[in-house]
Structure formats: structure tokens, C-alpha cells
Specification:
Number of strands: 24
Strand content: 35-45%
Number of helices: 3
Structural class: mainly beta
Radius of gyration: 22 Å
Number of domains: 2
């Protein structure tokens, strides 16, 4: 292909390791086998705009184009979190497709582009659904932070078009291969681990409705490219001074965030005569603007500069110090984030709580809302209502829920 395919806001930039994704998924899910992480508040408010409704006619078994499996871990006991698989297809010369638990990318001479993002991507099948002679990538994907569901994503690489079959909190979906045919199974959403028990129905997968098509078909809907863009730098031209603290105790993490995504941080806490400290620096990249006042960011680098291994103690000028983790840039296990960790950046004008709003999931009255943890760190939280703007810059660590504010 001559041009780099556009990145969708539903796709997540990938790192070389899926360890962070594994940790978050295992913390979210309970139940056998399917233990879908974070991600991606980035996905949550965006996808609600385009969730496709089920279109089917229950007549007889649907017969469609032949399909083949690329990877499939949906019915296995373990997902290979730290592994990857690469694939070349004759219809796409010069392109290498890469699967990890966190998503699917395509690499050509222009670089690597994210196509499908998941938490995780359980399987990927190859099938020419639209009859153009070039196979689409069809995947079963888990999504959610706290509320987890399964849906279908299809990427038509030839056209650069992304499709979804998603009825969040109504139905769960999964793909399988039966006698060379791609099959969709549908379950009623039950609020627990998705796709448990016998499915409600099964059928074929299609990208468009056709009144002459016999059998039961599930129609994946195209997702319109509503996103604003993929900027090369932050939406400000001077360094931002941000802070992460609760107002209780003597601890604080200061952060200087530069327009190019580079940052430096300094954490300190006092416990009597003991000082807990951590200096660090790194870089945020993968900027994707999702709404007028919100951006998705990906951690590209995090380096600890304290000069002592975490946990080591030393005496300096009569003061006892303990080297600590970078509080605010840690995961749910209180360890330093790995590259690939996801962040959201909000401008002072950000507001709302409903799907398509900048602050989708911001609800201080619901402890299960996606942004509740972030809300608890916001200095103006006690005056919050849906029409209240953030009134400062906010940086949201999606792995832990913690927030830095200017």
C-alpha cells in the first residue's frame, strides 16, 4: 500500500511486552479461562458512538466464504501474554501483520500501524467477507475496566476500514471456525466473565445486509472516522507543571510535562526521620486526539534517576533516605510502569460523564464508574457536576487510576 493506514481511536499502540496488559486483565477479571486489562478508557467513550446493532434473519445455517485461523486462544487455558505472531499475506505484498495479546498491527515501508486493539485479542481469523479477493482480519476482543465484555472487530486492510459487532452490556460475541466457515456466537450479557454457558444463537459474519442471503447473519457495522487527528505533539506549547497528591500526609509527586511528551518527575514522602524519594524521567508518545478536549497517550520510556535500587536505604547529610517507586507512574501492583502503559490527557475545558463526552465515566457518586479513581485525586472534586469543567490540565494513569493535575 502506498499510504499508511489511518489509526483508529479504538486501536492501542503496542509495546514489545504484554506484561502490563496481563497484570491489568488478571486484576479485572474473575472466573475461569477468559480473564480479560485496562486499557483503554480511550476506547470506552469512543466506541459507544458506533456500537452496531444485531441484524439477523433466523432461517437456516448461514454459508459464507471460506476462512482460516491465524491465532486462536479463546478456548485455551492460558494466553501467551509475552509472545507474538507474524504473518505475511500474498494479497498484501510488503506488509507484515503482527499479533500480540494487546492487539494487531501492520508494518510496511511507512512504519507500523495499529489495526485492532484488545484486552486481549483472543483470536484472529482471515476471511474475504466483502468478496474483493483480499482477506479481512476478523478478531474476538475483550474490552473494559471493571465492566468487561466481548465483541467482534474486523479490519479491511485493503480499504482501510474498521468494522465492529458490539452491543455493550446487552450481548457478548465471539468468533470460531467450523468446517472452514467463520461463525459468530452470541451470549446475553450477564455482568460477569463474558461468553459463559451455552450461546443464545450462532450464525455467520457479514459486513453488509443482503436480503437475498439465507441463514442467520450478524452484521458488523463500519465505524465512521470521527476522531480529530493524530498530532505529533501535546496540545500546549509550554511545559506543564503538574502534581499528584491527596492533601493528606507529607507525600507529593511533581511532574514537568513538555510539549514533545518528555517528562521529569520527583516523588517524596516523610515518615518521621525517614525520607522516601524517587526521581525519574521518560517520554509519552502515540498522541491520538479523541474529543475536542481529550487525548490518548502511550508511555514510551520510564527511567528511574534516584541513583539507588528501589528499597535501598542510605544516609546523606544526616538524613535517612529510602529509594522508592515512581508514585503516580506505577501500576496496580505499585511497581513502575512498563512501556506501552496508557494515559489520558484532558484540557481544562474537558467536562461531562456520558459517552462521547470528554470525561466519559466521570461520576463521583458511583464508585464503579470508570473515572471514579481519577475523580478522587481531582482537587475540585467536591464541586463536581456533569456541566463542571475540569478547570486544569489532567493526566490520567489508566493502569492505576491515579491523576496528575496542573
Amino acid at each position: 500500500m502506498n499510504e499508511k493506514m489511518p489509526r483508529t481511536p479504538f486501536s492501542t499502540p503496542l509495546s514489545g511486552s504484554a506484561k502490563e496488559t496481563e497484570i491489568r486483565i488478571r486484576n479485572i477479571m474473575s472466573g475461569p479461562k477468559k480473564r480479560p486489562p485496562v486499557l483503554f478508557l480511550v476506547l470506552m467513550f469512543s466506541v459507544c458512538i458506533f456500537c452496531g446493532n444485531l441484524v439477523s434473519c433466523q432461517v437456516k445455517e448461514a454459508e459464507g466464504p471460506e476462512a482460516e485461523v491465524w491465532v486462536d486462544y479463546f478456548d485455551t487455558e492460558e494466553m501467551p501474554w509475552d509472545e507474538s505472531a507474524e504473518l505475511r499475506l500474498e494479497e498484501y505484498p510488503g506488509v507484515t501483520f503482527r499479533w500480540t495479546a494487546g492487539g494487531v498491527t501492520a508494518r510496511d515501508e511507512t512504519g507500523e500501524t495499529a489495526l485492532i486493539g484488545g484486552m486481549p485479542v483472543w483470536n484472529v481469523f482471515l476471511c474475504d467477507l466483502n468478496g474483493d479477493g483480499k482477506r479481512e482480519l476478523c478478531a474476538t476482543v475483550s474490552f473494559g475496566s471493571g465492566v468487561v465484555d466481548n465483541h467482534i472487530e474486523v479490519y479491511d486492510y485493503a480499504a482501510g476500514q474498521w468494522y465492529i459487532l458490539w452491543d455493550r452490556m446487552e450481548y457478548d460475541y465471539a468468533l470460531s471456525l467450523e468446517d472452514g466457515q467463520l461463525r459468530v456466537s452470541q451470549w446475553e450479557y450477564q455482568g460477569g466473565p463474558p461468553c459463559q454457558g451455552e450461546p443464545l444463537s450462532t450464525g455467520g459474519l457479514a459486513l453488509s445486509s443482503d436480503s437475498t442471503r439465507e441463514g442467520e447473519w450478524f452484521i458488523a457495522q463500519p465505524a465512521a472516522p470521527f476522531w480529530v487527528g493524530d498530532p505529533d505533539s501535546m496540545p500546549f506549547d509550554q511545559p506543564l507543571e503538574m502534581i499528584f497528591l491527596s492533601g493528606a500526609g507529607a507525600w507529593c509527586t511533581g511532574l514537568t510535562l513538555n510539549p514533545d511528551g518528555a517528562f521529569t518527575g520527583d516523588y517524596h514522602d516523610s515518615d518521621g526521620p525517614i525520607q522516601y524519594v524517587c526521581q525519574f524521567h521518560g517520554k509519552l508518545g502515540g498522541f491520538v486526539q479523541l474529543t475536542e478536549h481529550s487525548w490518548s497517550l502511550t508511555l514510551e520510556e520510564l527511567v528511574l534517576d534516584t541513583g539507588h535500587p528501589v528499597g535501598e536505604e542510605w544516609i546523606e547529610d544526616g538524613v535517612r533516605y529510602v529509594s522508592s517507586e515512581p508514585y503516580g507512574f506505577n501500576n496496580q501492583d505499585s511497581k513502575a510502569l512498563e512501556p506501552g502503559a496508557q494515559f489520558m490527557l484532558y484540557s481544562p475545558e474537558a467536562k461531562g460523564y456520558a459517552p462521547t463526552d470528554d470525561l466519559y465515566g466521570m461520576n463521583g457518586e458511583d464508585e464503579n464508574s470508570p473515572l471514579y479513581e481519577f475523580w478522587t485525586w481531582w482537587p475540585n472534586r467536591h464541586g463536581w457536576d456533569p456541566d463542571t469543567t475540569l478547570d486544569c490540565w489532567g493526566l490520567h494513569n489508566l493502569a492505576s487510576g491515579q491523576g496528575f493535575f496542573s
